[in-house]
Amino acid sequence: MKFRVERDVLADAVAWAARSLPVRPSVPVLAGLLIQAGDEGLVLSTFDYETSARATLAAEVTDDGTVLVSGRLLADITRSLPNKPVEMTLEGSRVSLVCGSARFTLQTLPVEDYPTLPQMPTATGTARSDAFAHAVAQAVTAAGRDDMLPVLTGVRIEIDGSTISLLATDRFRLSQGELEWSPNTPDESLAALIPAKVLADTAKSLTAGSDVTIALAASGQGDGIIGFEGAANGGTRRTTTRLLDGEFPKVRSLFPNEHLTIAKIEKAALIESVKRVSLVAERNTAVQLAFSDGVLTLDAGSGDEAQASESIEADIDGGDIVTGFNPQFLLDGLGAIDQSTVQLAFTQASKPVVMSGVVPEGDDDPGFRYLLMPRRLLS
Fold it and tell me: Same structural domain for residues 193 and 135?
């Protein structure tokens, strides 16, 4: 095997493929990055039996061949190389890498022991890559991080015709976002539960091209995987990941149909106020929010400890209300909202708040909603 490729193109593709390599692989070959040189240029692949990554890129291939080397080491090396063409050559059981005056020799891993990458399911449709990445980034805000509850570490994707809904919850908060897409079958209706971290990393990495292809097998078909493919620097990239097992909770009904108190507040002012007041909030205690007479008053701290209070303007429709929230969860929700003015909608103090952006008059869809459970206030 022998090929020549631009340094930036190679370094970018290697870094992308190596990002999902396991830190402690169950078998040594799973720490490897598979390099295949042939008629279509270079194909770089990684697979840990759960998630696969495949990057294709243009290269001048002199001799076809396949080799397996340490993925993280290759990523570190290519990132540090000078901005000159890179030439790689297989020499027996070692790979020679030359870039300018820099020269590295890498030990190879046994290719025959490397698992076969899963096939990508048939494409279901395409979405604008930037819109998809943004919607995913909003949704994962509420995804759980407790591996003891694996179902809650995922994002539920629901496909209904030309609309994709994204839902995530960790039991204390809930996010819901939607985006339009172009399905291959207009009346398609599918659902899948995808690991939130994999989905977030993948969506963010596939924004180089205008569109991302989503491939999800219908219920009962395929082997429980979803695939994503998009254009990248000098080629294409493809990721597949195994779907999470288990039943995602029926969370849509948690959004109330009516509200008794609605407050509209400038987002930037509210974020800064929460950050300041929460400086004195003890761990796992709430920041109190009191809505009354066109003013939102935030309080934190109690007793002999440090205390803080701050008031900001609010457009309040409905009765007065006093409640409290985990300040970090509150900030996470505010940060995920696009609009400059946010709406906090309440039914009562002991019930969750629904946060969304204030949209222009006549537009009923804020695009993203964030439901947050209140915390008990210290007396």
Answer: yes
DSSP 36-89: EEETTEEEEEEE-SSEEEEEEE--EEEE-EEEEEEHHHHHHHHHHS-SS-EEEE
Specify the pTM.
0.90
Q: Which of 216, 242, 268 is the last residue of a domain?
A: 242
Question: What number is the average pLDDT over the span 126-130?
Answer: 96
Contacts of 289 (CB under 8 A, 6+ apart): 296, 297, 298, 322, 323, 324, 325
Residue 270 and residue 190 in one domain: no
Among 191, 208, 242, residue at a domain's last position: 242
Quote the tokens at residue 300: 């934190």
**Closest-CA residue to 260 (of 348, 172, 332, 374):** 348
* CA torsion through residues 65, 70, 76, 77, sign: negative
Token pair in block for residue 95? 């790979």
**pLDDT the model gives residue 18:** 95
Q: Round to whole Å and give the CA distance between 139 and 121.
A: 24
Q: How far apart are CA 124 and CA 184, in angstroms?
A: 6
Residue pair 3/10 in contact by the 8 Å Cβ criterion: no
